[in-house]
Amino acid sequence: MSVETTLVVAALAAIAAGVCGWLGARPAIPGRPPRLAPWRLLMLIAFAVMVTALGHLVAIWRGS
Q1: Torsion region of 35: left, alpha or beta (phi above 0 gives left; psi -120 to 50 gives alpha)
Q2: What does pTM read for this prediction?
Q3: pLDDT in tens, 26-38
Q4: In terms of DSSP H, where are the helices of the chain?
């Protein structure tokens, strides 16, 4: 992957982690059905993708 692609992937993963973290931190509303999306797990997966992309970016810069 190129540097630009890696930066885009890292930025999108950071945005996704932020949104999922925000949605997972909302309090439950009594009387409403439970949320079925595992927001915290999705946040952790997005964070892992971001860290991997940043590691790939460092490897690209050190290799050139």
Answers
A1: beta
A2: 0.85
A3: 998 899 988 889 9
A4: 3-25, 39-63
